[in-house]
């Protein structure tokens, strides 16, 4: 039985580890997601384009996408936005390795966004309120970058913080 070398398209025996024609590895390879060249399954970086090969953790982080919106009354009572929170409750979005918090200023006139990359996250905590739950995300960037958002439905906040902890292993 013959198989095709992914590098030079030459025919090689199925059991071969190296190509008879170009001498490169034909066993245990994967395709680079960036340039689609075949590289070793153990490579941490592509030898053709230098793109980092995503780890299982990277894949998990990139594929976790979720949005939770604060409870209107909850964010009114626990947040700083006052009445604006009743009409435009803050939301917390995780997508493609980023955490984004959107809040509105006075009566929704202006949107404030705070965005951090998940690799800046040092710890994630669920903060238990009496009626509503919150999420505290501490970053390596210090207190100014931290996210401390309250007023979510308790189950939403608990689920989001658990999932974040799990995928980030923090
Ligand atoms: Zn070959
Ligand atoms: Zn590549």
Question: Could you characterize the architecture of this molecule?
Answer:
The protein is of the alpha+beta class and 170 residues long. It has 2 domains: 1-53, no CATH class; 60-168, Roll (PH-domain like). It is 20% helix and 33% strand. The protein has 4 helices and 11 strands; from the N terminus they run E-E-E-E-H-E-H-H-E-E-E-E-E-E-H. The longest helix is centred in the last third of the chain and has 15 residues, at 154-168. It is elongated. One zinc ion is lined by residues 5, 7-8, 10, 19, 21-22, 24.
DSSP helix fraction? 10-25%
> How many extended strands?
11
Tell me the Rg in angstroms.
23 Å
CATH class of the largest domain: Mainly Beta
Number of DSSP helices?
Answer: 4
List the helices and strands and how they pair.
Layout: E1 2-4, E2 11-13, E3 29-31, E4 38-40, H1 56-63, E5 66-69, H2 72-78, H3 84-87, E6 91-95, E7 98-104, E8 111-117, E9 121-128, E10 133-139, E11 147-152, H4 154-168
Antiparallel strand pairs: 1-2, 3-4, 5-6, 6-7, 7-8, 9-10, 10-11
Bound molecules: zinc ion (2 copies).
One zinc ion binds at residues 5, 7-8, 10, 19, 21-22, 24.
């Amino acid at each position: 039985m013959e198989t095709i070398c992914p590098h030079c398209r030459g025919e090689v025996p199925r059991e071969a580890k190296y190509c008879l024609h170009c001498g490169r590895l034909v066993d245990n390879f994967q395709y680079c997601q960036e340039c689609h060249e075949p590289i070793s399954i153990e490579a941490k970086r592509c030898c053709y384009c230098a793109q980092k090969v995503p780890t299982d953790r990277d894949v998990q982080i990139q594929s976790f996408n979720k949005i939770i919106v604060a409870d209107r009354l909850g964010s009114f009572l626990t947040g700083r936005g006052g009445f604006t929170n009743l009409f435009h409750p803050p939301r917390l979005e995780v997508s493609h390795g980023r955490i984004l918090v959107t809040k509105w200023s006075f009566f929704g006139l202006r949107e404030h966004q705070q965005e951090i990359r998940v690799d800046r996250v040092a710890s994630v905590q669920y903060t238990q309120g009496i009626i509503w739950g919150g999420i505290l995300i501490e970053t390596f960037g210090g207190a100014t970058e931290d996210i401390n958002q309250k007023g979510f439905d308790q189950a939403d906040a608990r689920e989001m913080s658990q999932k974040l902890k799990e995928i980030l292993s923090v």
